[in-house]
Specification:
Layout lengths: L10 H29 L3 H9 L23 H26 L7 H27 L5 H26 L4
Helix pairs in contact: 1-5, 2-4, 2-5, 3-4, 3-5, 4-5
Length: about 170
């Protein structure tokens, strides 16, 4: 069975898919901004987010006014965060990936990598959260690298799909 390509879909479906990709991108960007706000985009900030400010040796009294004190996450909080994010991001990447799979113009190996990578990163990022909290702060590296890879893959799938939806024959 030959699947349709994005640019061959009816205009109304291309508009719908574009609206979905753009609104989902806004939500994803909001998540990235929250991560930046809550971790200061640093390895120490990631560890502090889950282990707590005091556990990371931060002088609470010396915190600047624009920096929030972080409390260590309990097992229940980590369970809640990981279960909600793994389920929702898996569905998001399934939807965006299904659209991206109908795109054209990229080598097959690259398309396959970009389709599968976010699912690996979801497990590594949110699994890394457990290791940071209950094992060692150095696991922040895993969370940072896998989070960056997930974000890069998401951006490629979204931008490339929109490009293919509206390319001229």
């Amino acid at each position: 069975m030959k699947l349709p390509r994005l640019h061959t879909l009816p205009r109304s479906l291309r508009v719908l898919l574009t609206a979905f990709l753009l609104s989902a991108a806004v939500g994803f960007i909001m998540g990235v901004l929250f991560v930046g706000h809550s971790t200061r985009l640093s390895l120490d900030g990631i560890a502090e987010r889950y282990r707590g400010s005091e556990a990371m040796g931060v002088d609470i009294d010396a915190l600047p006014p624009d920096r929030e004190m972080q409390y260590e996450k309990s097992e229940a909080e980590i369970l809640n965060i990981t279960h909600a994010h793994i389920l929702s991001l898996s569905l998001l990447f399934l939807a965006v990936g299904a659209i991206f799979a109908l795109s054209e113009g990229l080598p097959g190996w690259l398309r396959s990598f970009v389709l599968i990578e976010p699912f690996v990163s979801i497990v590594l990022t949110f699994g890394g959260m457990w290791f940071v909290r209950f094992h060692h702060p150095a696991w922040s590296v895993l969370m940072a690298v896998s989070g960056l890879a997930m974000t890069f893959s998401y951006a490629v799938m979204t931008v490339w799909s929109i490009r293919c939806l509206w390319r001229r024959n």
